[in-house]
Every structure is written in C-alpha cells, then in structure tokens.
Amino acid sequence: MTIQTTTHLNFRGHARAALEFYQSVFGGHLVVNTYADFGMPAEVPGSDKVVFGLVAAENGFRIMGYDIPGLAEGGIAGAGSTRRENHTTITDQAVFVSVGADTLDELQLHWDALADGATTIEPLAASAWSAGFGMLTDRYGVTWSFSVNG
Fold this sequence. Notes:
- The chain is α+β, with helices and mostly antiparallel strands.
- It is built from two helices and ten strands; from the N terminus they run βαββββββαβββ.
- It has helices at 15-26, 104-114; strands at residues 7-11, 29-34, 50-56, 62-67, 82-85, 88-91, 97-101, 119-125, 133-137, 143-148.
- The chain has a four-stranded mixed β-sheet, covered by helices on one side.
- β9 and β10 (143-148) form a beta hairpin.
- α1 (15-26) runs antiparallel to α2.
- The longest helix is centred in the first third of the chain and has 12 residues, at 15-26.
- It is globular and about 55 Å long.
C-alpha cells in the first residue's frame, strides 16, 4: 500500500498567485479551478477565486490551495508567526511546509527562488543535525522548513 500526503493551504484571496509562484519555484504543472468553473454564477463576488488548486511536479513536489469564500484580505488563513529567539524557533503557526532533498545544492535552487519577498527565519546552512537546514516565511505568509535528508 502507498500513501501520499499533500499540504493543502487555505488562502484569503491569493491562492492563484501563490500557486503560480510555487510552480515557478518547484516546477510541475498547475491546475486551477474557480468557483465559477463549478457552477457559481459569474456575477457573484468571489466566483473567480480558487476552489481547487494544485501544483504537482515530477520531482515529487505537491501542494494544493484554495480561497476561503468571502475572504479577500491577507495571506494564508491562521497565519500566526515564526521567529528565532535565544537560539530557539518560536511559533504559533499550526503548519509548516517541509521540503527535503538529498543535497544542499538541490535545496539551494528552490530556497533562492522561494526567498524572493520572504522573511528568513534561519538561513539555509549546515546545522548540528543536517548538512543543510533553513526556515523562511514566504510572501504569502506560509512558513517553509528546508533540510538535507539523511
């Protein structure tokens, strides 16, 4: 039996832009369906927002996103914050997206692209437990944890 999990992010009106950005960072194909695509009348506010969005890449990267009906301000729902303080990560966020790769070079390419407009929590560098570890919160309020596997 095979089980696959996919992070599903809930946005306040920015799902399409976020998913397009993630596709530019990780590659793959993008699927976006709007509320109008599933029958909401086009004249209803929010009918152009994302009800189903997916980025799936050959390298195994998968992420989903949608827009919460009626919400059009802000980034991700329930964002919270994450920061480093006294050599410890302090957070009240419910979810991080974790990205692992076999080498630091593989991670670095994705990190550099995702870091555009992001807040770095911990720079991508060797750590006590990994040949490469870093954390950032992207321009949409999503916190990402990067690490070299093994």
